[in-house]
Amino acid sequence: MKNLELLTKKEHLVNSSNVERKKHLQKIKILQNIYFQGPQTNTDICENFNISSPTSIRLLNQLIEEDWIKKDGRGKSVGGRKPELYALREQKFYIVGVQLERFKIKMAIFDNLNNKLKEYEKIPFKIEEEKSIVDHLFETTSNLIKELGIDAEYLLGIGISMPGLVSSREGKNFTYFLDEEQTESLDQALKRRFNKPVFILNDAKSACLAEFNFGLASDKKNVLVISMDWGIGLGIIIEGKVHQGSTGFSGEFGHIPLIDDGLLCHCGKRGCLETVASGLALSRMAKEGIKAGESSILNRLSENEIERIQPQTIIDAANKGDQFAINILSEVGINLGKGIAILIQLFNPELIILEGKFAEAQQFITTPIQQSINTYCMAQLREKTTISLSTLGNDSVLLGAVATVMENIFENQIKTANSV
């Protein structure tokens, strides 16, 4: 029988002694470190938490006895015998990651080693028509759990990423799912329905969290993560910390006005970057070009398919050598590069990670972006910035949703132990 008390219970700390609370706090921090950083040696633990080797060994042995961790081979030697590695035990708990998109929902169950156990990839969904998402998510998630055959008792929490102006602190999405009659916040309603910890966050920030914890940004200090999908999002890492802003809304990169007297953006302003450098812009340009008689393999699509054309369809055409698709991707990339040039001069990052559907266009999007940066950015800054495509693949946003669950679970336990 798995025992999740260490991560889920708080009441037992109230009547515990200072020594017991300190020990609890140290064990939580060790688990947190192993979860996010992977298997650790005793020396790693000592250095990370400034504790003695006997204290570290004692805590590690207790976590082994409590069935949380195990010895997992040996690490690299710096001279002499190779040190033992300590890792989390398999299938200790589970987390559901949910990714809401404009026209579909993607969700998956992960174990505590971040192995994806089961996934629903394309659940039909229209975000602009959905007022209440709570029952829909609960029923779909329940089916996923039943199909996998796990005990819901060991579901630690649910992380939900979504587009829009999302305040994780208030638990609200100020763009979608607005109901004037609803007296509780979105995450309160979800927590009540699931009877589990639920955390919501913006999809670009979710991708940033994934890169920060599991991707290319894990060993960097100053990084920008640009999500390129239907919209354009930005995650910001400054001095080794994910930056949220005073109200949690930092990174609304796509809504910077870039074009004078430009097209009307769905945010209500004209000429936003998203109107010329996003999946929405790419689809609009494709439809306009096809209707104007441009030569393209996209002309084989039916009228209905053209009206509903997805960015992925255009990217696939470009990867097959379709010149029209390549040209409009290039135009989007040049506009996006202008915006990125501004970001480089504002933040002076060491690394910019491009992630999302557009990353699959590879050189057809990265080359025009780089050309635009070369044109519009100061040489002294751009030469110090590396631009890379994400290595996390299609699961980056889901992994970020999982990461936010675990960050909050650990931090809540640490906060409780410190405040009792």
Describe this structure in words.
This protein has helices at 5-8, 11-14, 18-37, 42-49, 53-65, 134-148, 186-194, 203-214, 279-291, 303-307, 311-319, 323-347, 363-376, 379-382, 396-419, and strands spanning 40-41, 69-74, 84-88, 94-100, 104-111, 116-124, 155-162, 166-167, 172-173, 198-202, 223-228, 232-238, 241-243, 351-355, 386-389. With 420 residues, the protein is of the alpha/beta class. The strands form 4 sheets. It has a 5-stranded mixed beta sheet, with helices on both faces. A 5-stranded mixed beta sheet has the order 13-12-11-14-15, with helices on one face. The chain has a 3-stranded antiparallel beta sheet with strand order 1-3-2. A hairpin with a 2-residue loop joins strand 12 (232-238) and strand 13 (241-243). Helix 4 packs across helix 5 and helix 9 runs antiparallel to helix 12. The model has no long low-confidence stretch (mean pLDDT 89).
- Report the sheet with the most strands, covering strand number, pairing sense and barrel closure: 5 strands, mixed
Major sheet: arrangement of strands: 6-5-4-7-10
Secondary-structure element series: HHHEHHEEEEEHEEEHEHEEEHHHHEHHEH
**How much of the residues is beta strand, in percent?**
15-25%
Helix- and strand-based class? alpha/beta
pLDDT averaged over residues:
89
- Total beta-strand segments: 15
| C-alpha-based Rg, rounded | 23 Å
- Spans of at least 5 consecutive residues whose pLDDT stays below 50 are none
> Helicity range of the residues?
40-55%
The coarse overall form would be: globular
